[in-house]
Amino acid sequence: MKNYLSILQEIREEVLPLLGRGKVASYIPALENVDSRRFGMALVTLDGEAFVIGDADERFSIQSISKVFTLALAFAKLGEDLWKRVGLEPSGNPFNSLLQLEYEKGIPRNPFINAGAMVITDVLISNFDHPKAAILDFVRQLSGIDDVYYDYDIARSERETGFVNAALANYLKSLGNIENNVETVLDVYCHQCAIKMSCRELAQSFLFLANHGIIPSGNTRILTTSQAKRLNAIMLTCGFYDQAGEFAFRVGMPGKSGVGGGIVAVIPGELAIAVWSPELNEHGNSLAGIKALELFTTKTGRSIF
Ligand code: GLN
User: Cα–Cα distance between 148 and 140 in angstroms, integer?
Assistant: First the structure.
Protein backbone atom coordinates (compact mmCIF):
# COMPACT_ATOMS: atom_id res chain seq x y z
CA MET A 1 0.00 0.00 0.00
CA LYS A 2 1.24 3.39 -1.01
CA ASN A 3 2.16 5.90 1.67
CA TYR A 4 0.38 9.00 0.45
CA LEU A 5 1.39 11.19 3.40
CA SER A 6 4.65 12.50 1.99
CA ILE A 7 2.92 13.31 -1.33
CA LEU A 8 0.22 15.31 0.49
CA GLN A 9 2.93 17.18 2.42
CA GLU A 10 4.77 18.05 -0.79
CA ILE A 11 1.52 19.26 -2.35
CA ARG A 12 0.83 21.49 0.63
CA GLU A 13 4.24 23.15 0.33
CA GLU A 14 3.70 23.75 -3.37
CA VAL A 15 0.23 25.29 -3.08
CA LEU A 16 0.87 27.51 -0.03
CA PRO A 17 2.11 30.39 -2.26
CA LEU A 18 -1.33 30.44 -3.93
CA LEU A 19 -3.07 31.44 -0.71
CA GLY A 20 -4.02 35.10 -1.01
CA ARG A 21 -4.65 34.88 -4.76
CA GLY A 22 -8.35 33.92 -4.64
CA LYS A 23 -11.45 35.36 -2.97
CA VAL A 24 -13.55 33.91 -0.17
CA ALA A 25 -17.27 33.73 -1.16
CA SER A 26 -19.06 36.75 0.26
CA TYR A 27 -22.41 36.69 -1.55
CA ILE A 28 -23.61 34.55 1.36
CA PRO A 29 -22.50 36.93 4.16
CA ALA A 30 -21.96 34.24 6.82
CA LEU A 31 -19.49 32.40 4.56
CA GLU A 32 -17.06 35.28 4.86
CA ASN A 33 -16.41 34.50 8.54
CA VAL A 34 -13.67 32.02 7.75
CA ASP A 35 -9.90 32.22 7.93
CA SER A 36 -8.99 32.40 4.25
CA ARG A 37 -5.58 30.79 4.84
CA ARG A 38 -6.91 27.45 6.00
CA PHE A 39 -5.73 24.43 4.02
CA GLY A 40 -6.46 20.78 4.62
CA MET A 41 -6.41 17.52 2.68
CA ALA A 42 -7.61 14.01 3.46
CA LEU A 43 -7.25 10.84 1.44
CA VAL A 44 -9.04 7.63 2.40
CA THR A 45 -8.64 4.30 0.66
CA LEU A 46 -11.12 1.49 0.15
CA ASP A 47 -9.18 -0.66 2.58
CA GLY A 48 -9.73 1.84 5.36
CA GLU A 49 -6.44 3.74 5.44
CA ALA A 50 -6.51 7.51 5.96
CA PHE A 51 -3.84 10.13 5.24
CA VAL A 52 -4.47 13.70 6.40
CA ILE A 53 -2.58 16.99 6.48
CA GLY A 54 -3.17 20.56 7.66
CA ASP A 55 -6.72 21.48 8.65
CA ALA A 56 -8.18 18.17 7.48
CA ASP A 57 -10.21 17.77 10.68
CA GLU A 58 -11.68 21.25 10.79
CA ARG A 59 -15.30 21.49 9.68
CA PHE A 60 -16.40 23.97 7.02
CA SER A 61 -19.53 24.71 4.99
CA ILE A 62 -19.84 22.02 2.33
CA GLN A 63 -22.21 24.11 0.15
CA SER A 64 -22.65 22.52 -3.30
CA ILE A 65 -20.86 19.32 -2.34
CA SER A 66 -24.21 18.54 -0.67
CA LYS A 67 -25.70 18.23 -4.17
CA VAL A 68 -23.96 14.85 -4.51
CA PHE A 69 -25.61 13.59 -1.32
CA THR A 70 -29.11 14.77 -2.27
CA LEU A 71 -28.72 13.40 -5.80
CA ALA A 72 -27.62 10.00 -4.47
CA LEU A 73 -30.59 9.91 -2.08
CA ALA A 74 -33.08 10.91 -4.80
CA PHE A 75 -31.52 8.54 -7.38
CA ALA A 76 -31.72 5.63 -4.94
CA LYS A 77 -35.40 6.44 -4.35
CA LEU A 78 -36.63 7.33 -7.85
CA GLY A 79 -34.21 5.68 -10.26
CA GLU A 80 -34.22 6.75 -13.90
CA ASP A 81 -37.51 8.70 -13.57
CA LEU A 82 -35.40 11.49 -12.14
CA TRP A 83 -34.13 12.43 -15.60
CA LYS A 84 -37.61 13.51 -16.75
CA ARG A 85 -37.17 16.62 -14.62
CA VAL A 86 -33.46 17.41 -14.89
CA GLY A 87 -30.91 17.04 -17.71
CA LEU A 88 -27.51 15.38 -17.96
CA GLU A 89 -25.36 17.79 -19.91
CA PRO A 90 -22.61 20.12 -18.70
CA SER A 91 -23.95 23.66 -18.35
CA GLY A 92 -20.96 25.67 -19.57
CA ASN A 93 -22.53 28.48 -17.54
CA PRO A 94 -22.28 29.83 -13.99
CA PHE A 95 -23.98 27.68 -11.36
CA ASN A 96 -26.83 30.14 -10.84
CA SER A 97 -27.61 31.13 -14.43
CA LEU A 98 -31.18 32.39 -14.88
CA LEU A 99 -30.70 32.82 -18.60
CA GLN A 100 -30.06 29.14 -19.25
CA LEU A 101 -33.11 28.05 -17.26
CA GLU A 102 -35.31 30.35 -19.31
CA TYR A 103 -33.91 29.08 -22.61
CA GLU A 104 -34.41 25.51 -21.53
CA LYS A 105 -37.97 26.02 -20.37
CA GLY A 106 -37.51 25.05 -16.75
CA ILE A 107 -35.65 21.75 -17.24
CA PRO A 108 -32.26 22.47 -15.60
CA ARG A 109 -29.24 21.36 -17.61
CA ASN A 110 -27.96 19.05 -14.85
CA PRO A 111 -28.50 18.25 -11.14
CA PHE A 112 -25.39 20.12 -9.94
CA ILE A 113 -26.26 23.65 -11.05
CA ASN A 114 -28.46 25.40 -8.50
CA ALA A 115 -31.72 25.05 -10.45
CA GLY A 116 -31.13 21.31 -10.95
CA ALA A 117 -30.23 20.81 -7.32
CA MET A 118 -33.43 22.55 -6.24
CA VAL A 119 -35.47 20.15 -8.40
CA ILE A 120 -33.69 17.26 -6.63
CA THR A 121 -34.46 18.88 -3.25
CA ASP A 122 -38.11 19.11 -4.34
CA VAL A 123 -38.06 15.36 -5.11
CA LEU A 124 -36.80 14.67 -1.59
CA ILE A 125 -39.49 16.87 -0.04
CA SER A 126 -42.13 14.89 -1.97
CA ASN A 127 -40.65 11.56 -0.86
CA PHE A 128 -39.70 12.10 2.80
CA ASP A 129 -41.93 13.29 5.67
CA HIS A 130 -38.95 15.06 7.26
CA PRO A 131 -36.57 15.87 4.40
CA LYS A 132 -34.02 17.84 6.47
CA ALA A 133 -33.71 14.98 8.94
CA ALA A 134 -33.56 12.44 6.08
CA ILE A 135 -30.66 14.32 4.43
CA LEU A 136 -28.70 14.51 7.70
CA ASP A 137 -29.35 10.82 8.45
CA PHE A 138 -28.11 9.90 4.98
CA VAL A 139 -24.91 11.94 5.33
CA ARG A 140 -24.32 10.41 8.77
CA GLN A 141 -24.77 6.94 7.31
CA LEU A 142 -22.34 7.64 4.44
CA SER A 143 -19.67 9.23 6.65
CA GLY A 144 -20.13 6.95 9.65
CA ILE A 145 -20.14 10.13 11.81
CA ASP A 146 -23.20 10.65 14.01
CA ASP A 147 -22.73 14.29 14.88
CA VAL A 148 -22.86 15.88 11.41
CA TYR A 149 -25.10 18.98 11.62
CA TYR A 150 -26.44 21.99 9.79
CA ASP A 151 -24.89 25.39 10.54
CA TYR A 152 -28.12 27.31 11.16
CA ASP A 153 -26.44 30.73 10.91
CA ILE A 154 -25.17 29.99 7.43
CA ALA A 155 -28.53 28.52 6.37
CA ARG A 156 -30.31 31.65 7.63
CA SER A 157 -27.77 33.97 6.00
CA GLU A 158 -28.26 32.31 2.61
CA ARG A 159 -32.05 32.24 3.01
CA GLU A 160 -32.07 35.99 3.72
CA THR A 161 -29.81 36.98 0.84
CA GLY A 162 -30.27 34.25 -1.78
CA PHE A 163 -32.33 36.32 -4.19
CA VAL A 164 -31.05 34.61 -7.34
CA ASN A 165 -31.86 31.17 -5.94
CA ALA A 166 -35.33 32.46 -5.03
CA ALA A 167 -35.76 33.66 -8.62
CA LEU A 168 -34.64 30.26 -9.99
CA ALA A 169 -37.02 28.39 -7.67
CA ASN A 170 -39.95 30.64 -8.53
CA TYR A 171 -39.24 30.29 -12.23
CA LEU A 172 -39.10 26.49 -11.90
CA LYS A 173 -42.39 26.58 -10.02
CA SER A 174 -44.05 28.73 -12.69
CA LEU A 175 -43.14 26.12 -15.31
CA GLY A 176 -44.38 23.21 -13.20
CA ASN A 177 -40.98 21.70 -12.31
CA ILE A 178 -41.34 22.25 -8.54
CA GLU A 179 -44.12 20.28 -6.82
CA ASN A 180 -43.86 21.74 -3.33
CA ASN A 181 -44.07 25.17 -1.80
CA VAL A 182 -41.17 27.35 -3.08
CA GLU A 183 -40.37 28.56 0.46
CA THR A 184 -40.03 24.96 1.65
CA VAL A 185 -37.71 24.08 -1.25
CA LEU A 186 -35.49 27.10 -0.54
CA ASP A 187 -35.43 26.31 3.18
CA VAL A 188 -34.33 22.69 2.66
CA TYR A 189 -31.86 23.71 -0.07
CA CYS A 190 -30.20 26.36 2.13
CA HIS A 191 -29.90 23.84 4.95
CA GLN A 192 -28.34 21.09 2.83
CA CYS A 193 -25.74 23.62 1.60
CA ALA A 194 -25.06 24.64 5.24
CA ILE A 195 -23.99 21.16 6.39
CA LYS A 196 -20.57 21.37 8.08
CA MET A 197 -18.02 18.61 7.56
CA SER A 198 -14.26 18.20 7.56
CA CYS A 199 -12.06 16.93 4.69
CA ARG A 200 -11.67 13.60 6.47
CA GLU A 201 -15.45 13.21 6.90
CA LEU A 202 -16.14 14.24 3.31
CA ALA A 203 -13.60 11.83 1.85
CA GLN A 204 -15.05 9.06 4.00
CA SER A 205 -18.60 9.86 2.87
CA PHE A 206 -17.65 9.67 -0.84
CA LEU A 207 -16.07 6.21 -0.58
CA PHE A 208 -19.28 4.48 -1.69
CA LEU A 209 -18.85 6.21 -5.07
CA ALA A 210 -15.38 4.70 -5.37
CA ASN A 211 -16.83 1.31 -4.44
CA HIS A 212 -19.65 0.65 -6.97
CA GLY A 213 -22.29 2.19 -4.69
CA ILE A 214 -21.43 0.22 -1.52
CA ILE A 215 -20.19 1.79 1.75
CA PRO A 216 -17.00 -0.26 2.28
CA SER A 217 -17.13 -0.34 6.08
CA GLY A 218 -20.26 -2.36 6.82
CA ASN A 219 -20.87 -3.34 3.21
CA THR A 220 -24.13 -1.37 2.84
CA ARG A 221 -25.38 -0.85 -0.70
CA ILE A 222 -26.56 2.73 -1.39
CA LEU A 223 -26.69 2.75 -5.21
CA THR A 224 -26.56 0.01 -7.83
CA THR A 225 -23.27 -0.39 -9.69
CA SER A 226 -24.83 1.29 -12.71
CA GLN A 227 -26.17 4.21 -10.65
CA ALA A 228 -22.76 4.76 -9.01
CA LYS A 229 -21.15 4.81 -12.45
CA ARG A 230 -23.73 7.32 -13.62
CA LEU A 231 -23.30 9.59 -10.61
CA ASN A 232 -19.54 9.58 -11.15
CA ALA A 233 -20.09 10.45 -14.81
CA ILE A 234 -22.23 13.44 -13.82
CA MET A 235 -19.52 14.59 -11.38
CA LEU A 236 -16.90 14.37 -14.13
CA THR A 237 -18.94 16.31 -16.68
CA CYS A 238 -20.82 18.75 -14.41
CA GLY A 239 -19.13 18.86 -10.98
CA PHE A 240 -17.26 22.14 -11.56
CA TYR A 241 -19.82 24.18 -13.51
CA ASP A 242 -18.19 26.13 -16.35
CA GLN A 243 -14.77 24.77 -15.31
CA ALA A 244 -15.76 21.07 -15.58
CA GLY A 245 -13.80 20.53 -18.78
CA GLU A 246 -10.67 22.15 -17.35
CA PHE A 247 -10.95 20.09 -14.14
CA ALA A 248 -11.22 16.85 -16.15
CA PHE A 249 -8.27 17.99 -18.26
CA ARG A 250 -5.99 19.09 -15.42
CA VAL A 251 -7.05 16.64 -12.69
CA GLY A 252 -8.84 13.69 -14.31
CA MET A 253 -11.10 12.55 -11.48
CA PRO A 254 -14.87 12.82 -10.98
CA GLY A 255 -15.48 15.33 -8.21
CA LYS A 256 -17.63 18.09 -6.76
CA SER A 257 -16.81 21.53 -5.43
CA GLY A 258 -18.61 23.98 -3.15
CA VAL A 259 -18.29 27.72 -2.56
CA GLY A 260 -17.13 27.00 0.99
CA GLY A 261 -13.83 26.06 -0.69
CA GLY A 262 -14.15 22.30 -0.46
CA ILE A 263 -13.62 19.76 -3.25
CA VAL A 264 -14.08 15.98 -3.06
CA ALA A 265 -13.00 13.60 -5.82
CA VAL A 266 -12.77 9.83 -6.28
CA ILE A 267 -10.77 7.23 -8.15
CA PRO A 268 -13.20 4.29 -8.47
CA GLY A 269 -11.76 1.09 -7.09
CA GLU A 270 -9.18 2.98 -5.03
CA LEU A 271 -9.81 6.08 -3.00
CA ALA A 272 -11.60 9.32 -2.18
CA ILE A 273 -9.74 12.58 -1.60
CA ALA A 274 -10.96 15.90 -0.17
CA VAL A 275 -9.28 19.28 -0.07
CA TRP A 276 -10.31 22.56 1.59
CA SER A 277 -9.01 26.04 0.88
CA PRO A 278 -11.67 28.78 1.17
CA GLU A 279 -10.40 31.18 -1.50
CA LEU A 280 -12.17 30.68 -4.83
CA ASN A 281 -11.34 31.36 -8.46
CA GLU A 282 -13.68 33.20 -10.85
CA HIS A 283 -15.75 30.03 -11.43
CA GLY A 284 -16.53 29.63 -7.71
CA ASN A 285 -14.16 26.67 -7.27
CA SER A 286 -11.33 26.52 -4.71
CA LEU A 287 -8.23 28.00 -6.35
CA ALA A 288 -5.60 26.16 -4.32
CA GLY A 289 -7.88 23.11 -4.06
CA ILE A 290 -7.88 22.55 -7.81
CA LYS A 291 -4.12 22.99 -7.96
CA ALA A 292 -3.66 20.54 -5.08
CA LEU A 293 -5.69 17.87 -6.86
CA GLU A 294 -3.86 18.50 -10.13
CA LEU A 295 -0.56 18.00 -8.30
CA PHE A 296 -1.94 14.84 -6.70
CA THR A 297 -2.78 13.12 -9.99
CA THR A 298 0.44 14.38 -11.59
CA LYS A 299 2.71 13.24 -8.76
CA THR A 300 1.05 9.84 -8.25
CA GLY A 301 0.37 9.13 -11.92
CA ARG A 302 -3.12 8.08 -10.82
CA SER A 303 -6.38 9.33 -12.34
CA ILE A 304 -9.34 7.68 -14.01
CA PHE A 305 -7.67 7.90 -17.42
N1 GLN B 1 -25.47 27.60 -1.50
C2 GLN B 1 -24.75 28.05 -2.65
C3 GLN B 1 -25.69 28.72 -3.64
O4 GLN B 1 -26.74 28.23 -3.86
C5 GLN B 1 -24.05 26.89 -3.27
C6 GLN B 1 -23.28 27.26 -4.52
C7 GLN B 1 -22.00 26.48 -4.69
O8 GLN B 1 -21.43 25.93 -3.75
N9 GLN B 1 -21.50 26.47 -5.89
O10 GLN B 1 -25.37 29.71 -4.20
Answer: 6
Per this entry, what is the length of the chain? 305
List the catalytic residue out of 91, 148, 188, 241. 241
* Catalytic residue status for 189: yes
Q: pTM of this prediction?
A: 0.98
Q: What ranges do the domains of the chain cover? A: 4-300
Question: What confidence category does residue 204 fall into, taking pLDDT thresholds of 50, 70 and 90?
Answer: very high
Question: Which residue has a Cα nearest atom 4 of ligand 1?
Answer: 114
Q: Which atom of ligand 1 is nearest to the CA of 190?
A: 1
- pLDDT tens for 61-115 read 999 999 999 999 999 999 999 999 999 999 998 999 999 999 999 999 999 999 9
Is the domain 4-300 a CATH 3.40.1190.10 member? no
In short, whether 165's Cβ falls inside 6 Å of ligand 1 is yes
Told to judge if 64 belongs to the known catalytic residues of this protein, a careful annotator would answer: yes
Contact 11, 51 (CB under 8 A): no
259 an active-site residue? yes
CA distance to 72, 135, 213, 250, per residue, from 221 (Å): 12, 17, 6, 31
